[in-house]
Amino acid sequence: MGCVSWCFRGLEAGADPAEAIRTMGELGCETTSLILNAREDIGSFWTDARIAQIRTLLESSPVTVCQFVLSARCGGAHEHGPGRAPSEPGVLRGGVPDRPAPGRAHRGHRGALAWIAEPARRGLPAAALGPAKPRPGAKFRMETALGFDWERVWTLWVETVRECLKRAGRRGLRLSMEHHAHTMVPDSASFLRLWDAVREQGLGCSLDTGWIPAQSEYAPVATHKIGRRLMRVDARDIDGPMRAFVHVGEGVMDFEGVARALKAVGFRGGITLEQDKIPGDMRASVKRFVAMMKGCLHA
Predict the structure, then answer these.
(1) What is the CATH number of domain 2-125+149-297?
(2) Which of 41, 124, 176, 289 is the Cys-Cys partner for 204 at CB 3.0 to 4.6 Å?
(3) Cβ 105 vs Cβ 99: under 8 Å
(4) Tell me, what's the pLDDT at 86?
């Protein structure tokens, strides 16, 4: 139980997670996620020396790393811009580094998993990726590119995931996909379709309790659907209209139902609060979340 490191650090290039790790330890967190959020950090920040420093810090901390996140921004996932349809596999595969920081960081962090954010659907715009307050009179509209071919995009995506799994497997890593709105895997059903296409045990799902209702899914049911393929849980609350993420306890998320579903499917992975970029007392929110979820899981 814990929170992601970017609850207490920035997401800009070169952001150091050390102070966040110390803060999380003080708050009673047991696990966290680290992140590669900028491609240049592969060689400039996540050096062997830096990994050794963070490993030493973790050895003296109650916090372990359950996942190392590779943001879509690091792999060139949006390099062709909004509204442009793909023409060949390199559009997706070309952004996958052959020697990414997560593979190296895994040897420096306990229990880390690899994660790669799904790129936005090729041929669809990259805007409006999540819940937001609409402008007065605004309509929901997304343009598709000329020649957009969903089946071709999906085929390229499956090939890309298989290649990522090969590279992760060579480093002893598993690969988990987190669903976000407006991506190749926006919900549990699309993840299961991907898993059926790939059928590799190294592939799993990171469930985000906030993004699931944004896709009109109920988080506990999604947990049952993903079942044994669930590798990790990002927890966050969301408001009633399903348009804005809010502090834990201020929204409508059924955390008790999520806890019951996790116990029912035999989940044993990390559960982290991902509540970044929300004004307010983050320390209090993390403490409240950890206490609440422990109470739900032990009830």
Answers:
(1) 3.20.20.150
(2) 176
(3) no
(4) 42
